[in-house]
Amino acid sequence: MRTLVFAAMLAIAPVALRATVLVPIEFRELVNAAPIIVHGEVVDVHSDWSTGRRAVETFLTLHVDEYFKGDLGSEITVRVPGGRLGRYRTIMVGAPVFATGDEVVLFLNTGAPSYPSIVGLSQGAFRVVMMPRTSTRIVSPSAVMSIPGGDAQPVVRGDVTRRPIGIDQFRTLVRQVIAEGAK
């Protein structure tokens, strides 16, 4: 009887043990890995079936303000795994969620012949928000982001040294990393 139960557990285990592993990516690697880096506003978010109707994917249309690297035109559509379509929902751990009106900086894979996708899932999506008191637009750092010139640091909840930076400083930082990579 034990052998039968053990054999049944082994037969089920490969299905039950699937997981998503998100490997942290250093900021320099992120900049160098992404052929397209775009800053813009999300103007549309909708979900649709993936090929074969096995999962739901989200498609966001971005009105481009500027490209830090590459160029795909003034408006692009990006595919993000996961989403909700009617009563069906696919959840992809680590995939960012967007809403119309979000201002973002995205690090993209070109995805030809398909839609571009975000490098490193949520690690390649940076939110740009307005500071309420100063009206300064800031970029929130990724949980695993380390600034060039500094060492990667462990993520500590409430760490006062992790601060958002202004969009102009972020743009300069990205362009500095691109220039260093071209040397």
Describe this structure in words.
By secondary structure, the chain is α+β, with helices and mostly antiparallel strands. It has one domain (24-182): OB fold (Dihydrolipoamide Acetyltransferase, E2P) (Beta Barrel), CATH 2.40.50. Helix content is 21%, strand content 33%. The chain has 3 helices and 10 strands. The chain has helices spanning 2-16, 27-33, 167-182, and strands at residues 36-49, 56-69, 75-81, 83-85, 88-90, 103-109, 117-118, 125-130, 137-139, 165-166. Strands 1, 2, 3, 6, 7, 8, 9 and 10 form an 8-stranded antiparallel beta sheet that branches. The protein has a two-stranded antiparallel sheet with strand order 4-5. The protein is globular. It starts with a helix and ends with a helix. Residues 146-150 have low confidence and may be disordered.
